[in-house]
Task: structure prediction
Amino acid sequence: STQVKFASTATNNEARLTLISNESAGANSSNIAIGATSTPTRYSFLLNYQDTPMMLQTQNTSRIRIGSGTEGGGISIGSYASGNNLAPSGGMIVSGNVGIGTTSPAAKLDVVGSGAFVGQVSVAGSVSPSFAVYGGSYSGTFGVATAPAAYSDLSAAGDAILRAPNNNLILTARNNGGNILFATGGADTEKMRVSTNGNVGIGTTSPIAALQVLGNGYALESSPTNYASVISNYSGSTEMNGLYVKAGMAGNSVIAQFSAYAGPGNATPRLTVKSAGGVGINTTAPRAALDVNGVLLMADPALTSTSSVDFSTGNIRYTANDCGAFNMFSMKSGGSYSFVVQGTNSATCSFNAYSSADTSVPLTVHMPSDHAATVAGKHTMYTILVVGTHAYLTWAPGL
Result:
């Protein structure tokens, strides 16, 4: 090999610049060493003088700085190459924009083409959105609010906001068994899910209907100027009949009103509950605890074939037997009851009455002073009014 060395006697004649033509290493093999004490290898450029960095300059301005060994060998580019701006060990700092796959980078890092990241990617800054993904002229953004109402009118400082500025925001779990889960709390406790079959569950992980709410209770509210909720069938684009519910009407004098719903603007009140306690059926102004505008029907009178008369499922009972000793059950204070004897043979009735379904809570029975045997071939009707622990009977014989 052929070598040319330039040395200085000030430092024990060490070579300051070595030019080598190393023919044995291959054709056109050349090396340059500056401040190095060892022979450089093929196609190498060495700079090693008292552990100082290498500087590349134009017009007396540093453009690239390669740190020394004690500095970790980092690279500083642009305005960071001057002064004491040291790159991290084995790393690089760049003062301007960096383009990969483009000659005109428009941002600190502008990549044209596909890329891959292995590990955590951190995006930090004092502005939102912190992260944006573009598809042509459209974008999807993710930001972290640095102050209240930053990046979103609803945000508080530290809130994370996902936004679709141009169109819809779509969340999908695109597989046959995928669900969309919503969780809150430090332990990520599930609060709501959209299951793969489209059912929505709140407080349940396996909703069995289009909407299932499971918990201690739930509220359905609307604004005071539009205090209505509609529960109706819906077929395609046609809204079917249903239930129209209003609450908090007329200064809260009406707690609730239920109407038959037959489409927008077509709701007929059927039941009104007043805050004072009145309930109106087919009237919006009940005059008593229960005010019914229309025919009131009770349960169909039941036939009693034994001596036991049970009023638990209706206020009217009758028997085809003749009069005898009858035991009457489930008669409550404030109730009015009727018992018809249709037997055609003359006989005298006697009664025991009980508030309970058995004989544990007896009532004192008061018979009419003119009570006697029934009229042969005729029906007899008894009316019983229960007040406290007393049962008062009246009768109408010979009907």
Q: What stands out?
A: The chain has a mean pLDDT of 80. The radius of gyration is 47 Å. The chain has no helices and 32 strands. The first strand starts at residue 2 and ends at 7.
